[in-house]
Design a protein that fits this description.
By secondary structure, this protein is an alpha/beta fold. It has five helices and eleven strands, in the order ββαβαβαββββαβαββ. The protein has a seven-stranded mixed β-sheet. It has a two-stranded antiparallel ribbon with strand order 1-2.
Length: 201
Amino acid sequence: PSLGARLDDQNYSVLREIELSEKTFDETRRVWTKPGVYGWQKIDAGSALLAQCLTQVWPQAPASVLDLGCGYGYLSLRIAQQWTDATLTATDNNVAAVHACKKNLATFSDRAEVVLDDCAVAIEKKFDAVICNPPFHQGFSVEGDLTTRFLQSARAHLHKNGRALFVVNQFIPLERKAQPLFSRVSEVSRTEGFKVLVLEA
């Protein structure tokens, strides 16, 4: 029997270059991305808020940065452009996200590496700065322990005097989860349902 017309998959498996308007920084940028990558056709509001806080938390650029859960690389691109001398490692467990991030960063930085990894468990290096917009769900279920995993990974990858910058939805009790792991936890920004916290090793 006939299966009928084939559904349009919109070239699901293929990276495509799209233009994103960034009101926060009053500019437009082109990025490589695809369906299946979180927030693939937009600039995530939480990530945009975190990007605004980078120079507030680090008036001088850190020497090394880990983008934990990089997606298609929006925050990595911000770092590569703002902190041109920093070494950058970006990581995600989504193959398509890593592929897109590599392609995006290739244009801006020769000091960046993109690693396919699950919450950076195989990355042994430590960093001066960790940035993270962590997922709070896995598949279709909200997973509270997922945020804790990202906090634990951030702490494990920081140098002694390093700092991590996290952005989360306001309803996530990141402060409570982070306090046993970090020497100091403080909020640096809050808007539109998000909050940004700096976590000191």
